[in-house]
């Protein structure tokens, strides 16, 4: 069923739930309606010393056109304006043709670090001649992945200072594969010690997932930067400059990338994935070439009168395993996305990162970030100083007119309102 998203942001959560109900099964609709949390018993199985559960807003950024398919993206974030920015960007990008993505590969990498080797060169030759045996030993340690079409794919070595590092790449199919990798690596470590007469310092997967790269690209027509063609052209040039700045200054690169991860983390969290792994992968990838750089690039295509954005990231995301099957809200998130495969989900997440980056840059080079961000932050400020929902609704337009939209002003406005009663 086609959903009319007009005015979606102005609706109440209950009205929004009704509008999107066709995307969910009855069971998941009830879950949303009753705002059911993760059961304490389940939570107690997921982590240790559990006292309770912890809630965050669960939102939707609708209508992302990615590889000619529409996705309504679940996002979990505590930060105002992130979901608004993603939704805004998705709308403009859809009208300009949507996102296209490329999955370069999808393998996880792990390593066994060997040391105390007499001759690293000879050890490398020995490992190379035992490659097939090592791969089949790795597969024997986790046979179920072979049935699913995955398994250990390659082994190679690199000398780094006193270490000879043995890398193993594995096709983990729909899983993120941390446990799978670690089991395989721990299984081959003793063999590596035996055949090289060296010692294994550790055997562990790497979050620098350079064999799980995904690229998202999109173009945005200049008319969406400004209705005034001259101003739009200036903004397009500034967009290009803004990404160049993130290439040459690490202070800016860190914030540029934080903006990208505003969107990425929100989807990673909603879909029950390990956001620390995704952050580690992204930030280590940003240091390629020795300098920490902005992960995205925007180019002003003067011929087509468009800005063209591109973001490449490691995205070792999963749709199975971990806590994905345990948390009902996570299952709901997968349902909203129409149960995508891991590759499809990776494409969605990198596209959201690019959308988020577009919205942030558009704001930064235009009116400035505070305008839009504070508009949405203002309500949180009012609630923070103790305003009721009703009071916050009355005070919001007043606070937005103030020069200093801070907690102090919010407090003053609330006192004034209550004194008027
Ligand atoms: P606007 O043009 O003032 O908003 O932008 P608008 O009221 O004209 O609405 C335009 C559209 O935005 C709406 O269309 C929605 O799609 C969306 P409509 O539905 O009305 O047809 N929108 C909303 N969606 C949901 N709830 C809302 C809402 N309001 C608008 N309440 C906007 C406002 C916030 C979108 C814009 O100013 C923006 O994108 N700003 C960037 C905000 C941002 O990036 N926030 C992240 C926090 S700041 C940060 O951490 C990152 C940063 O440091 C990264 C970096 O430096 O690169 C900036």
Automatic annotation (TrEMBL):
<keyword id="KW-0520">NAD</keyword>
<dbReference type="InterPro" id="IPR023074">
    <property type="entry name" value="HMG_CoA_Rdtase_cat_sf"/>
</dbReference>
<protein>
    <recommendedName>
        <fullName>3-hydroxy-3-methylglutaryl coenzyme A reductase</fullName>
        <ecNumber>1.1.1.88</ecNumber>
    </recommendedName>
</protein>
<dbReference type="GO" id="GO:0140643">
    <property type="term" value="F:hydroxymethylglutaryl-CoA reductase (NADH) activity"/>
</dbReference>
<dbReference type="InterPro" id="IPR004553">
    <property type="entry name" value="HMG_CoA_Rdtase_bac-typ"/>
</dbReference>
<comment type="pathway">
    <text>Metabolic intermediate metabolism; (R)-mevalonate degradation; (S)-3-hydroxy-3-methylglutaryl-CoA from (R)-mevalonate: step 1/1.</text>
</comment>
<dbReference type="InterPro" id="IPR009023">
    <property type="entry name" value="HMG_CoA_Rdtase_NAD(P)-bd_sf"/>
</dbReference>
<dbReference type="InterPro" id="IPR009029">
    <property type="entry name" value="HMG_CoA_Rdtase_sub-bd_dom_sf"/>
</dbReference>
<keyword id="KW-0560">Oxidoreductase</keyword>
<comment type="similarity">
    <text>Belongs to the HMG-CoA reductase family.</text>
</comment>
<dbReference type="InterPro" id="IPR002202">
    <property type="entry name" value="HMG_CoA_Rdtase"/>
</dbReference>
<dbReference type="Pfam" id="PF00368">
    <property type="entry name" value="HMG-CoA_red"/>
</dbReference>
């Amino acid at each position: 069923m086609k959903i009319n998203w007009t005015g979606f942001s102005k609706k109440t959560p209950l009205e929004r739930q009704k509008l999107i109900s066709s995307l969910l099964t009855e069971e998941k609709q009830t879950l949303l309606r009753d705002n059911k949390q993760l059961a304490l018993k389940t939570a107690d199985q997921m982590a240790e010393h559990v006292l309770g559960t912890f809630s965050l807003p669960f939102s939707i950024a609708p209508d992302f056109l990615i590889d000619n398919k529409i996705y309504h993206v679940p996002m979990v974030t505590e930060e105002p304006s992130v979901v608004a920015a993603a939704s805004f960007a998705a709308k403009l990008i859809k009208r300009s043709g949507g996102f296209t993505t490329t999955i370069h590969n999808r393998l996880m990498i792990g390593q066994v670090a060997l040391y105390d080797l007499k001759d690293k060169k000879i050890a490398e030759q020995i490992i190379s001649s035992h490659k097939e045996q090592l791969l089949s030993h790795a597969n024997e340690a986790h046979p179920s992945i072979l049935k699913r079409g995955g398994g250990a794919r390659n082994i190679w070595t690199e000398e780094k200072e006193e270490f000879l590092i043995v890398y193993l790449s594995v096709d983990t199919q729909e899983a993120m594969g941390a446990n799978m990798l670690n089991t395989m690596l721990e299984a081959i470590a003793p063999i590596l010690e035996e055949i090289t007469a060296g010692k294994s310092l550790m055997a562990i997967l790497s979050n620098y997932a350079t064999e799980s790269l995904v690229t998202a690209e999109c173009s945005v027509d200049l008319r969406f930067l400004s209705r005034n063609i001259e101003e739009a052209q200036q903004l397009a040039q500034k967009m290009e400059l803004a990404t160049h700045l993130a290439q040459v200054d690490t202070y800016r690169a860190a914030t540029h990338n934080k903006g990208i991860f505003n969107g990425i983390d929100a989807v990673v969290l909603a879909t029950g994935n390990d956001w620390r792994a995704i952050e580690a992968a992204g930030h280590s990838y940003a240091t390629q070439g020795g300098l920490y750089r902005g992960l995205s690039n925007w180019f002003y295509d003067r011929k087509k009168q468009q800005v063209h954005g591109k973001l490449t990231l490691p995205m070792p995301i999963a749709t199975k395993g971990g806590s994905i099957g345990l948390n009902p809200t996570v299952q709901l998130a997968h349902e909203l996305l129409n149960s995508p495969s891991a590759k499809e989900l990776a494409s969605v997440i990198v596209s959201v990162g690019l959308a988020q980056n577009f919205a942030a840059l558009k704001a930064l080079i235009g009116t400035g970030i505070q305008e839009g961000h504070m508009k949405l932050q203002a309500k949180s400020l009012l609630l923070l100083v103790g305003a009721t929902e009703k009071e916050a609704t009355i005070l919001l337009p007043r606070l937005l007119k103030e020069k200093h939209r801070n907690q102090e002003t919010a407090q003053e406005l609330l006192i004034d309102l209550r004194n008027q009663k």
